[in-house]
């Protein structure tokens, strides 16, 4: 920005949505292969969603800074400590998925939903490493993309979500089996 130009928060919101669209698509279709990006994306999305609940209403730029910090930390952990990072990612995706489902259905007790989904997600991902990466990254990509459509009818959102997740799982499982062969 040059001198005299004003900061336009809509530009920041548009950039955030574009990044979410790109990362959601990549994680949906290549989350197992790019597990570090999957972990970073989940950390980013979860931090962006949870930070206002912890700190209260904040400017979008602050939410982005916190979310980017968590995402970068997740990527670094994923590269250095793969199983630990994937366990954390499983916790975050499981928690985030159950929290999102609870929000869609109007459920209360956000903290309980997040913790319960997180524990289940972490256990699943560690027991079935490759397949859980495929399923959880497809779920995370689906959630990221569905959040870009907040005014979509709930029934249509659930149907679209199931279709996107299934498509992501199929694409990733085909690529995984081909690589192993």
Question: Can you put this structure into words, describing what you see?
Answer:
- There is one protein chain.
- This protein has one domain.
- It is 83% helix and 0% strand.
- It is built from seven helices and no strands.
Low-confidence stretches: none
What's the number of structural domains? 1
| C-alpha end-to-end distance | 52 Å
User: What is the mean pLDDT?
Assistant: 84
Percent of residues in β-strands: under 5%
Main sheet: strands, sense, barrel: none
Distinct helical segment count: 7
Order of helices and strands: HHHHHHH
Q: What oligomeric state best describes the polypeptide chains here?
A: single chain
User: Nearest-angstrom radius of gyration?
Assistant: 16 Å
Instruction: Estimate percent helicity.
Output: over 70%
E-strand count: 0
Q: What overall form do the CA principal axes indicate?
A: globular
Coarse structural class: mainly alpha
Could you write a compact summary of the structure shown?
With 181 residues, the protein is mainly alpha-helical.
Task: Chart the SSEs and their pairings.
Layout: H1 9-30, H2 35-55, H3 60-80, H4 82-105, H5 110-127, H6 129-146, H7 154-180
Helix pairs in contact: 1-2, 1-6, 2-3, 2-4, 2-6, 3-4, 4-5, 4-6, 5-6, 6-7
Kindly list the characteristics that best describe this protein.
181 residues, mainly alpha, 83% helix, globular
């Amino acid at each position: 920005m040059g001198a005299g130009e004003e900061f336009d928060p809509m530009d920041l919101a548009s950039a955030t949505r574009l990044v979410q669209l790109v990362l959601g698509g990549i994680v949906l279709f290549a989350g197992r292969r790019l597990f570090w990006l999957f972990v970073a994306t989940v950390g980013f999305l979860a931090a962006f969603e949870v930070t206002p609940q912890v700190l209260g209403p904040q400017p979008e730029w602050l939410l982005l800074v916190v979310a980017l910090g968590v995402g970068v930390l997740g990527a670094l952990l994923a590269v250095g400590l793969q199983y630990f990072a994937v366990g954390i990612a499983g916790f975050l995706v499981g928690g985030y998925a159950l929290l999102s489902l609870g929000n869609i259905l109007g459920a209360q007790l956000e903290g309980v939903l997040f913790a319960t989904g997180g524990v289940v997600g972490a256990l699943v991902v560690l027991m079935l490493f490759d397949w859980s990466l495929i399923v959880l990254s497809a779920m995370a990509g689906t959630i990221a993309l569905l959040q870009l459509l907040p005014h979509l009818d709930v029934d249509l959102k659930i149907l679209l979500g199931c279709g996107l997740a299934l498509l992501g799982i199929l694409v990733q499982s085909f690529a995984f089996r081909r690589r192993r062969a």
